[in-house]
Amino acid sequence: MNVLLVYAHPEPRSLNGALRDFTVARLRAAGHAVQVSDLHAMRWKAVLDAEDFPEHQRDDPLNPSRASRLAYAAGTQTDDVAAEQEKLRWADLVIFQFPMWWFSMPAILKGWFDRVYAYGFGYGVGEHSATHWGDRYGEGTLQGKRAMLVVSTGGWAEHYGERGINGPIDDLLFPIQHGMLFYPGFAVLPPFVIHKTGSMDAQRFDATLQDLGARLDAVAHTAPIPYRRQNHGDYLIPALTLKAELSPGRSGFALHCERPEDAGATARNSDVHNAPALSSPVHS
């Protein structure tokens, strides 16, 4: 298996640095090919702006989606963006490792998504019609690949529980896992989350490595989060709302995960559509 680790932490001597090194060694020992995009070491440019589009006329207002579409189609993207896209094409599994800062990923990693997910690569693909609204949410250019988050938090696990003050960790990670990974087609594995990192003693560190190692050993056959695919019968199109007969009485992000009781509630449309998309709101 080809594995890409996209890593975002500024200090290589940190807990995250140790986990990164462990992950690379464990995967390579198991026979996997591994590449690492260490964003801080690469001095990754986090801000998407006119510098990303060399052909853009500086006197014209910048429309990021349009500029991204033209640059991707013409092969005029910056070298750093094109290199990361090539790594994604190569990878069978992508692991995104980062500390949770202010309830999300660090800005440098968000900037990686902003710049690497170009129009025509990360979004803006597929037919738009009365029954199919683009190849996204389970379809897209990254379909057939797996992705997993490795996330550290300073708070206790209880702080991120169902009744925890920070909110459930699955809800906090939903915009990343569903909106940034499942959207372009990744099968998203359950996250590996390490809590209370400020008081990690040797015993818990060893236990964490053991648990992470078990997760890494199982990545090839771990069942992904059962997110509902957009174009397979669960959603009304073009409203893109979940059909009323599915998950009645429930609300929130959990609606967008399939449940056994929903089996057979609606017919699944398995047609594959590959015509170019008309538009997308991602870089609006």
UniProtKB/TrEMBL annotation:
It holds the Pfam family Flavodoxin_2. GO terms for molecular function: NAD(P)H dehydrogenase (quinone) activity. Residues 262-284 are annotated as: Disordered. GO terms for cellular component: cytosol. Keywords: Oxidoreductase. SUPFAM superfamilies: Flavoproteins. It comes from the Bacteria. Residues 1-215 form the Flavodoxin-like fold domain. Belongs to the NAD(P)H dehydrogenase (quinone) family. This is NAD(P)H dehydrogenase. It comes from Pandoraea thiooxydans.
